[in-house]
Fold this protein.
Amino acid sequence: MTSMRISQLAERSGVPATTLRFYESAGLLSADRTPAGYRVYGEDAVERLAFIGAAKHLGLALEEIGELVGVWEAGACRDVKADLRPRIAARLTEAETRAAELAAFTASLRGALAHLDALPDRAGRCDPECGFLAGGPRSGSAPTPNSAPNSAPNSGGARRGQPVDVLLTPGRRAAEQEAERWRDAPVACSLSGEGLHERTAHWREAVDGATRAAVPDGLRLTLPVDRTARIAELAAAEQQCCPFFDFRLHLDGPRLHLEVRAPADGGALLTDLFGSAH
């Protein structure tokens, strides 16, 4: 039986050695040991890792993947199909909900920009009637003096002139129930190779020129507000493959504050992707 050291398996599968060790600790991958204590794997490990990677790309949690691997090992394809279908259906519902929320958020930002462009260049001080973050009244008409302020669309009830916070999580229900589940998420990313390089390039382009400051467990990047839609899109995609990142968007007038957090084990990955505080 052919056996591979962990470095050889990492090269064959495209899965980093650090992730292989984590999979072993999580019970997803087993390894034998040489008399010297080195990990060795059989050829079946490559197929198993391909199955795990496919399940991760579907957005399944590691606990679910562990359950699914157990069914897969039994060898009956119909059982895998029966077990996998409701899981995919649930993820599809979540993804559609997130897509709708993100589309509504994008529309709100476009409305805010259109409203901002339509405002006159007044010589006086800005006041709440400017409505920079409100996106304009729902009717599309200009605000009138002494009119009652409306809540900004998709801002959680924020009033005109107040900052808007957006917490990116896998769904509103999950946000309420597991607001900080990123702290316990595995520090492992399903992207590898060309996909990882492409995502990294997109992030570096999106946050180019940002002002950085340290926050507990992470980093805050300050950017022009017109990058919000792009940042939100990237953050939503990032959580699909790297759920250990926590993203929070704070709209503050012409500025966007992006806070990114990660568990202690993910600190190096956070710095590599987003830079460090100056």
Observations:
- The mean pLDDT is 78.
- The chain has nine helices and eight strands.
